[in-house]
User: Fold this.
Amino acid sequence: APSVASAAVLDLDLLHRLRLVGMLPDPADGSSAVLVEHGYALRRGERLILTPAGREHAEAAARLDAGSDAEHAAQRVYEGFLPLNAEILRACSDWQVRPGGVANDHTDRAYDWSVIDRVAGIDERIGVPVSRLGRSVGRFAHYRPRLRDALDRVQDGEHDWLVSPRLDSYHTVWMQLHEDLLLALGIARGEEGAP
Assistant:
């Protein structure tokens, strides 16, 4: 384990982002050096990969203090998030596969807009709680603008911005928000309750 002095120079934001996605481009500014030095990340070419020790440290650092106002705020958002999560997963599935199991080729604009309208409705319902949480727990502040940006792109006809894992798509950001809420509350994915 790193000493207290060296732990103070860890880039916890980078470690947290790495925990959420598992692999990132290695920053050119050298901020990953201490993570690698202490075994929290590995370099693979120009990529940075989270290690089991890094995962453990990131999860401990991401956990909000039990009983704190921040934890209560995250818990409220999480409880409202769960039913919306089921809705967004259904909408994303419908975006990719039309009724009858046919792949959506996005030639039926009425069908596509029916899905986009559902996502926009879900986005409206999650927007205020996530914005409020971002004001009380800083690391959540970026989720609302990222969700809005992805939805705006989808509404402008950039179809990949709804579900593509290669982009900061709506689904990608949503899944990161979900994971971050679980980390904040110390809930393991397999222990998560139903909505």
Remarks:
- The two ends are 38 Å apart (CA to CA).
- The mean pLDDT is 92.
- Residues 6 and 129 are 36 Å apart (CA to CA).
- The chain is about 60% helix and 10% strand.
